[in-house]
Structure formats: C-alpha cells, structure tokens
C-alpha cells in the first residue's frame, strides 16, 4: 500500500519536474518582466510531492511496513523509534530520496527568495536545477527505488547495523547532504549566469548566501562525522584520511575557495570566470564523492552495500554533467576585466584559492591513485595518513601566515593597515612559553605552532579593534580564529597522545607511563536487544593522583547478530581518557586499548567556531 | 625583441610551470614512499621482492579455529585457501573480526610465514568485503 503510494508520489514529482523544465523553456520565449505565477505554483507542487514521497518512506519506517524491501532490509520492529526514523536515510535508496528532496527544496527556495531582477537568470537556474532533479529521479525510479515491494511480506526486518544506531550518525548524513546538495544551486546558477550573461555583482549576491549556508552545513556535517568516528570506531582518532572522509573534504575545500572569491566578485573586481568554474567544480566534486562512496570501487569503512550498476549510473550522469558544463562554459565564455593590484586583499584571496586548489589536488591524488594503479597494472595499494600529513603540514605554515596578514590589506590598492608590532611580540612570547612547556624538537611542528598562535592573537585583536569601531566582520574573525585554534590543538594533540595495547585478565594491573590501569570487575547484563559485557577499570594517574573509572563494553546484538565494542571515554577539559576492550576467542583474556588524547574538546570546539563563521556570514547584511 | 609586457608574462608563466613541476614531483615522491601494498598469502609466498621492513597490508580469511589469545598478543592464521600466514597482533580488534570472516591487517612481514600486525582494519558491514580481497579469493576458490 505505502509502496504504491511512494512510487506514485515520486513519479508525479518526476513528471512535474519535466513539466517545469518545459514551461520554463516556454517562459523564456515570452518577453515579460516577471516570471508568471504558473511557474511558482508548479514549483510548489513539485516540492509537495517530493516531500510526500519522503514522508511515505518515513511512515514505512515508523510503522515497520516490511512490504517495502528497503524497510525490510534496514529496519526491525524492536528498534527504538528514533533509529527507525534515522534509518530512513541510513541506506543508499533512502539517502538518495533525501538528496532529491534537498535538490527540490533548494530549487524552490532559490526561486522564491532570490530578489534578483534578472528574470532569465532565475528561469535558467530553475531549468538547470530541474535537469539535475530529473536525472536523480530517473536514478531513483529505475535503479534505486526505496519503494520497491517485496512479496510475500516478511514478518520481521533484518535490522539496522548497531554501529549506525547512534545519535551523531543519525544527524550526520542530513547535515552533509545539505552541504553536498546545497552546492547544486550555485552549480545551476553559475551555468544560468553564463547563458543569461548576468553581471558579476548580481551573480555574486545571488549565490553568496547559498555558498555560506552549504559551507556551514558541510563543516558541521564533517564535524559530527568526525566525532562519531572518534567514539564509535574505537580507534581513538578523529580523522583517518579514509576515502569517504576525503570525499567530504574535497567539496569543502572548493566551497572554502568559493566563499572567499565570491567576496572579490561582489565588489566587481574580477574573478567572474573563476567563480563560475569553482561553482561548477564544487557540485561536480560532490557527485564524484558520491560516486566513489556508492560504487564500491574504493575500499572504505562506510556501510553502503555496493552495487556496480549504481556506480555506472552516477558515472554516466557525472560525465554528462561535466561535458555539458564545459560546453556551456566555452560557448558563453565571459570576457574578464582584471584590475587588481599586487598585495591587495583580492590578491590574498586569490592565493587562498591557490592553496585550496593545491590541497584539493593532494587529497584527490591520494584518493584516486589506488584506483588508477589497480586498473592500469592491477597492483592493489592504499595510501596511508603519512602521505597527507607529510605533504600538507609544511603548507600550513604559509597558509596560517597569509590568513593572518591577508585580511589586513585593503581592497584594490596595495595599502596596508598598520601592522600591530605588539601582536608579533605577544605571539612570539606566547610561542616561547609553549615551546618551553612542550619541548618539541620538530622544526615544522614548532613553526606551525608559532604561526597558529600568531593567527589566534591577531584575530583576537581584530575582534577587539572591530568591536570598538562597530564595523564588525565577525564571520571572518570567528572562522579564522577557529582555524588557528584547530591547527594549534591538533598539533598539541599529535605530540602528546599516548596509545598502548595490551592483554589483561580480570584483576590484572598494568603500568603505562604515568598511569596505572586496574581491571577490577566484569559485569554481564541482558538488555532489550543486546547482551552486554562491561569491564570495570580504574585508571590512576600517579603524577597527579587522579582516579578515573572507565567502563568499556562489549555488546552482542541479536538483530542482526553483531558484536560491537563500545569505547569508554572520560572527557576532561584538558585531556580525554579512552579505553576499548575486545574479546575474540571466548577466553578470560581481554584485549585492551588505552589512550590519552589531549584537548579533544578544544578540537571539536575549534571546528564549531569555524562553522559558526559560516552562519554569521549567511546572516550578515548584504552589501547593496 | 620582446616588449616588457610579453616578457613579464613569460616570466610569470615560467615561474608557475616550474613551481607546478616541483610541487607535482614532491607530491608523487611522497605518495610513492607512503603507499601500502596489498598482498594475499599466496602473493607473499610467490613474490620474492616484498621487503621485510616496509609496511604492507595483507588480507584473506581468518582460518577457523586458529584464533588464540595469549598473555600479550593475539595470534591467528590468515588464509586464501592456498597459502597461510600467521599473524600476531597486540590490541583490540574491530567488531566484525571473527573466525571464518574476511580480514585485512596492516603491518610488517617478519618472514614468509609470519606477519606482525599494527592495525586490523574495521569493516562495518557484515556482507561487505574489500574489493581486493574478493578478487584474490575468487581466483583461489575455483
């Protein structure tokens, strides 16, 4: 019943999208100053039907309607309601439906909220956006239909992987999708700008809020995913350079570049083509990321069961998208006016863009190289974190320096606002204190620390100065401040992390550096849908005489039968204590992983600050 | 011969190309030093060129009945149904590690029959298998 309804609703959404494209094309031929009401109405109908189809799937999950294969494969009656709901987008088909919903929502909002006077620009944006929507709807209806029926109807579902039953992971995909898919609207707008020959400023003001908002969601989505990986995977890390993580980072780098270059475009200084290229690339990279994750050509920790036919569809779609973009770009290539001076603000923004593109290239090469090597010579390899760390670390130094000095330059001219020498002195002395506290010998890490402190101090003063002058550019200050903190705390975390692996029996005592770990007790509990084995550990810091109790847990779920190891984390202001326990051969010996992770909360907080900058930028009054 | 404008342009162009070449060489050099090659137990048996002091990944099935937890380490046998290799590991295993299931281990070879693992890789999906393993197993089961 729900299955048929879902198919009907999504098919209607598909036909409405086709109608919208047709009517928009017809609308272009009429010379009028306003867009006719018809278009607005149909756009609303499209939104309603796509939301309805998502709602049907949601109901299917809430009421465990196993007549749909998708619900049968990913849900179970005993699952808590919250995870039944989040299960809707926790799988390939459901997440594709969510993806389409966001595409439609953004298309609708762009049409209604955009005050741009250029009528053709808006209509073209609508057309391009709806081409994307129809493309993904075809994919949904033909290849990955979440409403496919199953007969006979099973009594019970197969359950959702317990690792995915987690609040962070429930909100992580929607956040990331708003970021990923949000970039579609400036992809469409960029192409529309080319075709309708919109002037620079008009393009900049129409895409700027969408860039900020999608950047905010992308940043937050990455943060939540990273937090999840930290406490759920039990490795104690927060970034593994896993291909899936990379595929969310790559669009982020491009969005960051775009976020900056739009500022130049807004002031009519230049970069018109560059902004368009970046807009096109960002969404392309989002689709590439999706392709890499869903097609299964990459070896990664993510869960989507793989199916080559999905990959093929996305690949064909991607190729069509890229080639038509290139065609449109060269057919309507704009003539560029350049008038920027060396060492002006826009010069530094351009350098920022070069850095982002370089980082993107490094991550892209690291992610794709294994695929190329495999297809070319059949050699299986993977690229480890040392590659990324080794390359990216030295480049952070000039980046941090430019982030500090760049914003202090004026637009257009090379005039520099007075450099606070006091800031330099203060940063240096702060650095010396840090240096004597930590006694780190690596030159690169020391330089990174020095320049991150410089950035932190500078943004701090900027805040004070701007607050006095009331002309506050809060978004930039908050984000840059957050970035300085992030790099600083990651470096400190990197230096002071402790990790130790050992085996222990009940009652054992283990000494690691300044810590004494005692395996005190073992508790077995029977919960609603799993059996739990909890270890009670006492960790004593011999230096500070602090006692902490940690309880790592082994869970044996029944639906589907899965074992998970729940890390026990004592999160403190300065440091996290992290303990995981596993048992594999039913003996009384347990495998223990003990970790000390300094400043984890500060790392999360820094990323949060960075993303808050995005929201502030979104809320800021537009320059008119 | 060349006027100043063209000369400047040429200079900028040359600097950029030189810089790109240096960067690309740097990136690929680092890449080469940091790739982890993947081998099956049979590969290790046949290939003479695998260096002992380099980090690699091995993969296959955990042999039934081979997992032993000892005082300080975990030992198990990885098999591709043709050749076997003993793996020694210290630490917690990922949730889906089990006898008869697929596994990928990262670490160093001690000799042709003994592997010292630093990391056992997690696979979230019970039905999921790394593509490289699927292939190497497919060939051997036939």
Shape of chain B: elongated
> Count of DSSP E strands of chain B?
7
- Classify the helix fraction of chain A into a percent range: 55-70%
Mean pLDDT of chain A: 87
Largest sheet descriptor of chain B: 5 strands, mixed, barrel
Estimate what percentage of residues of chain B fall within beta strands.
25-35%
Number of helices of chain A: 17
CATH topology type of the largest domain in chain B: OB fold (Dihydrolipoamide Acetyltransferase, E2P)
Number of helices of chain B: 3
Envelope shape of chain A: globular
> Oligomeric state of the chains?
heterodimer
Low-confidence runs of chain A: none
Strand content of chain A: 5-15%
Structural class of chain A: alpha+beta
Which chain pair has the greatest contact? A-B, 51 and 42 residues
Describe how the helices and strands are arranged.
The complex is a heterodimer of chains A (624) and B (142).
Chain A: H1 2-29, H2 37-62, H3 69-74, H4 81-87, H5 92-113, H6 119-142, H7 167-196, H8 200-232, H9 243-266, H10 272-295, H11 308-331, H12 345-377, E1 381-383, H13 385-405, H14 421-438, H15 443-469, H16 474-496, E2 498-504, E3 509-512, E4 515-526, E5 530-541, E6 546-550, E7 553-558, E8 561-566, E9 568-571, E10 575-582, E11 590-598, H17 600-619
Antiparallel strand pairs in A: 2-11, 3-4, 4-5, 5-6, 5-7, 7-8, 9-10, 10-11
Chain B: H1 4-34, E1 35-39, H2 41-46, E2 56-62, E3 68-69, E4 74-79, E5 84-89, E6 102-111, E7 114-120, H3 131-141
Question: What attributes characterize this protein structure?
Answer:
heterodimer; A: about 625 residues; alpha+beta; 17 helices; B: about 140 residues; OB fold (Dihydrolipoamide Acetyltransferase, E2P); 2 domains; 5-stranded mixed beta barrel; 3 helices; 7 strands; elongated
Describe the structure.
The complex is a heterodimer of chains A (624) and B (142). Chain A is α+β, with helices and mostly antiparallel strands. Helix content of chain A is 62%, strand content 12%. Chain A has 17 helices and eleven strands. In chain A, the strands form two sheets. In chain A, strands 3, 4, 5, 6, 7 and 8 form a six-stranded antiparallel β-sheet that branches. A four-stranded antiparallel β-sheet of chain A has the order 2-11-10-9. The relative contact order of chain A is 0.08. Chain B has helices spanning 4-34, 41-46, 131-141; strands spanning 35-39, 56-62, 68-69, 74-79, 84-89, 102-111, 114-120. Chain B is elongated, with a radius of gyration of 23 Å. Chain B folds into two domains: 1-34; 37-141, OB fold (Dihydrolipoamide Acetyltransferase, E2P), CATH 2.40.50. In chain B, strands 2-4-5-7-6 form a five-stranded mixed beta barrel. At the A-B interface, helix 12, strand 1, helix 13, strand 2 and strand 8 of A face helix 1, strand 1 and strand 3 of B.
């Amino acid at each position: 019943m729900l299955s048929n309804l879902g198919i009907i609703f999504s098919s209607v959404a598909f036909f409405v999208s086709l109608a919208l494209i047709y009517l928009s094309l017809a609308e272009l031929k009429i010379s009028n100053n306003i867009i006719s009401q018809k278009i607005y109405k149909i756009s609303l109908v499209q939104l309603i039907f796509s939301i309805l189809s998502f709602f049907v799937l949601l109901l299917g999950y809430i009421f465990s309607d196993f007549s749909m294969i998708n619900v049968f494969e990913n849900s179970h009656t005993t699952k808590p309601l919250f995870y039944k709901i989040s299960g809707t987008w926790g799988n390939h088909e459901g997440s594709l439906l969510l993806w389409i919903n966001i595409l439609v929502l953004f298309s609708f909002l762009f049409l209604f909220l955009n005050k741009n006077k250029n009528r053709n620009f808006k209509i073209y944006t609508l057309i391009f956006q709806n081409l994307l929507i129809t493309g993904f709807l075809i994919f949904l209806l033909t290849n990955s239909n979440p409403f496919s029926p199953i007969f006979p109807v099973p009594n019970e579902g197969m359950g959702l992987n317990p690792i995915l039953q987690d609040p962070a992971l429930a909100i992580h995909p929607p956040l990331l999708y708003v970021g990923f898919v949000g970039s579609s609207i400036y992809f469409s707008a960029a192409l529309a700008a080319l075709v309708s020959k919109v002037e620079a400023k008009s393009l900049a003001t129409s895409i700027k809020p969408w860039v900020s908002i999608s950047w905010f969601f992308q940043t937050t989505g990455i943060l939540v995913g990273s937090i999840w990986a930290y406490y759920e995977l039990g490795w104690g890390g927060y970034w593994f350079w896993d291909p899936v993580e990379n595929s969310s980072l790559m669009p982020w780098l491009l969005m960051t570049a775009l976020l900056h270059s739009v500022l130049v475009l807004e002031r009519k200084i230049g970069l018109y083509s560059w902004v368009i290229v970046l807009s096109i690339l960002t969404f392309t990279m989002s689709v590439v990321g999706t392709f890499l994750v869903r097609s299964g050509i990459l070896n990664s920790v993510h869960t989507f069961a793989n199916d080559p036919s999905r990959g093929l569809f996305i690949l064909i779609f991607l190729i069509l998208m890229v080639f038509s973009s290139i065609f449109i770009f060269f057919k309507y290539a704009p003539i560029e006016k350049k008038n920027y001076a060396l060492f002006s603000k826009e010069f530094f923004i351009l350098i920022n863009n070069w850095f982002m593109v370089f980082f993107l290239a490094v991550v892209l090469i690291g992610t794709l190289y294994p695929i190329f090597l495999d297809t070319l010579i059949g050699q299986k390899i993977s690229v480890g974190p040392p590659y990324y760390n080794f390359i990216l670390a030295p480049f952070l130094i000039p980046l941090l320096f430019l982030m500090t000095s760049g914003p202090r330059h004026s637009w257009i001219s090379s005039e520099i606002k007075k450099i606070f020498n006091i800031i330099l002195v203060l940063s240096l002395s702060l650095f010396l204190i840090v240096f004597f506290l930590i006694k780190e010998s690596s030159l690169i890490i020391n330089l990174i620390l020095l320049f991150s402190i410089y950035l932190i101090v500078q943004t701090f003063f900027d805040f004070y100065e701007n607050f006095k002058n009331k002309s506050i550019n809060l978004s930039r200050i908050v984000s840059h401040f957050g970035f300085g903190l992030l790099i600083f705390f990651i470096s400190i975390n990197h230096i002071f992390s402790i990790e130790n692996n050992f085996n222990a029996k009940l009652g054992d005592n283990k000494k690691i550096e300044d810590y004494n770990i005692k395996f005190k007790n073992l508790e077995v509990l029977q919960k609603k849908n799993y059996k739990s084995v909890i270890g009670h550990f006492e960790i004593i810091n011999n230096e500070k005489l602090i006692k902490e109790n940690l309880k790592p847990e082994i869970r044996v779920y029944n639906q589907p039968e899965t074992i998970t190891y729940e890390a026990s984390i004592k999160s403190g202001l300065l440091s996290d204590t992290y303990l995981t326990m596993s048992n594999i051969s039913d003996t009384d010996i347990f495998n223990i992983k003990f970790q000390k992770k300094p400043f984890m909360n500060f790392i999360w907080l820094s990323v949060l600050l960075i993303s808050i900058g995005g929201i502030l930028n979104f809320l800021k009054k537009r320059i008119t | 011969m060349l006027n100043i404008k063209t000369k400047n342009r040429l200079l900028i162009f040359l600097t950029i190309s030189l810089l790109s070449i240096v960067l690309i060489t740097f990136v690929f050099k680092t890449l080469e030093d940091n790739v982890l090659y993947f081998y099956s137990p049979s590969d290790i048996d046949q290939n003479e060129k695998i260096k002992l002091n380099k980090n690699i990944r091995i993969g296959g099935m955990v042999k039934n009945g081979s997992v032993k937890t000892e005082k300080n380490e975990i030992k198990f046998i990885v098999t591709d149904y043709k050749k076997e290799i003993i793996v020694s590991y210290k630490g917690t295993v990922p949730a889906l590690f089990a006898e008869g299931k697929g596994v990928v281990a990262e670490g160093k070879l001690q000799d042709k029959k003994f592997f010292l693992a630093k990391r056992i890789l997690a696979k979230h999906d019970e039905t999921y298998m790394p593509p490289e393993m699927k292939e190497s197993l497919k060939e051997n089961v036939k």
